[in-house]
Specification:
The protein is mostly helical. Helix content is 72%, strand content 3%. Helix 4 packs parallel to helix 16.
Length: 644
Amino acid sequence: MTFASEAPQLLEASGSLQQGAWLLVALPVLSAAVLLLGGRRTDRWGHLLGAAVPIALFGYGLLLFLDVRGLPAEERSRDLHLWSWIPVGNLQLDFGLLLDPLSLTFVLLITGVGGLIHIYAVGYMEHDPGRRRFFGYFNLFLAAMLLLVLGNNFVVLYLGWEGVGLASYLLIAWYTDRPSAATAAKKAFIMNRVGDAGLAIAIFLMFSTFGVVSFSGVFGAVGGASDGVATALGLLLLLGACGKSGQIPLQAWLPDAMEGPTPVSALIHAATMVTAGVYLIARANPIYDVAPTAQLAVVIVGAATLLYGAIIGAAKDDIKRVLAYSTVSQIGYMFLAVGLGPGIYALGILHLLTHGFFKAGLFLGAGSVMHAMNDQVDMRRFGGLWRILPITWVTFGLSYLAIIGFPFLSGFFSKDPIIEAAFDREGWSGWVFGGVALFAVGLTAYYMTRLMLMTFFGKRRWTDDVHPHESPPVMTVPMLLLAVGSVGAGFFLVTGDRLAHWLEPVLGEEQEVVHKIDPLGVSILTVVFALGGIAAAWFVFGRSPVPTTEPVRVSPITVAARRNLYADAFNEAVFMRPGQWLDRFLVWFDNRGVDGAVNGVAAGLGGGSGRLRRLQTGFVRSYALSMLGGSVLVVASLLAVRFV
């Protein structure tokens, strides 16, 4: 009797909790408005407000998660209508939010890891005069990303998508006195516009084909669409995902984004912007299920990018750029997973979550090293820091072990199943994709071990004006918490298939497959390849002193990797230069052709009228003579016509 009487109240409380989900977006927007419009009066406490918002949102997101988790699987999705946004003709578009297992998973990642990065930024940006404005941009970034993952239709998602692009531009270009920062921000903005165009065209195609742009409407109708439409949608969405997640062919902006402050790098690479593309493909899984060609394209992009990023990361000396190319590679693993089809999507999200912990830990550790080394980023000028920065060394080391797939750490539980699923793909392509993913494990272990050896071990190679010191607690505590996640998140998420079962209502059930290689065999192979990469790095950088300058004589592969495998040169030759030439030609044609013709006609009329004006003398005898001459010409013409 007691339970029966309280049940309606519990349901009502649950509904009220979910109805307030708009606060997840509204609060960071409000905080950003206060910090950006409040002026200098908010300087003393603005950073505290900026850091408190994501922590409060994480608490609320956790309550929502627990609330939805207690419901039956078929009731774990709720569409919240907020207002009618675009009621134009046949387009009746509502502004609403979607609370389901996938969106809530991202909410916890964005606010949880993002909140730790916000706390870290309080100490990292302590001496920056624009710290309050920085946190305003940070909160704006958070709001846009939350809107992206919570939107219940593709247009609301696109609004958050563009908001993330704007906020990233503002943060990457934070150091306005550095031309390189301005260039990097413009590069990120322009390359993302290319991907955004793909997403926009996909939305137009959805409306023209299905008459709706809501997730439920599009996914319910795509099964009846032609193969061409489904493939086009998948490829256009993939183009948008490549732009946001820094995948081939739109990967070049992501490493340059390191020009922003280190907390920006951590937020972009671990919890927000680069995960957007993975989210988009996972969310649109019903489209890819009926578009095998587009699905294959996702796999190819992921496999190519994970290898591309790993090769370049092995040749960089800038600690942040090594981690940036590591992100490019690890996101490639996620694309590979979400492209492998039904039953595998959850593996991509699993690696995304574990990557959020260890990559944020790595970037914050790199920031701690930079904080100790007067903002130097050249690893050839580090060495021997493990004694001076013990907390940074331990936390960074645990994240390092996680990313290389050390047994029973988070990366081991998320990366190995992806490699196994790649091998299990039907036909010879499974051996190719699985082999590429396995080979990249060795490369990852190589470049990350190289980073560890050059930064924390060996002889001290810094200059006399540098006095390394450990970071303050406001920076080290978030690093410690992320290290805990790097160690245990993978085990927690895979035990009992927690994550897979949680995401089943959105991503579908896991499917039984015939394994080409036993899972234990895959794990043994990954450990062997990782040990091989560690041994290779130790052989090169651990046995002999690291030179303080970059060697001149290196292999052609190293030269190519240092030049980003000529990707920037290719983009410049194929896209930028022809674009410049076309622009110059159009300017010349406009000046000489269009303007020349218009100005020529105007000049001709002006000159002719000026000459005709001279005939108006004002003398009667001149006019009489003109009339006589005209009459003579008329009479002569008539006579000539008559006699002819």
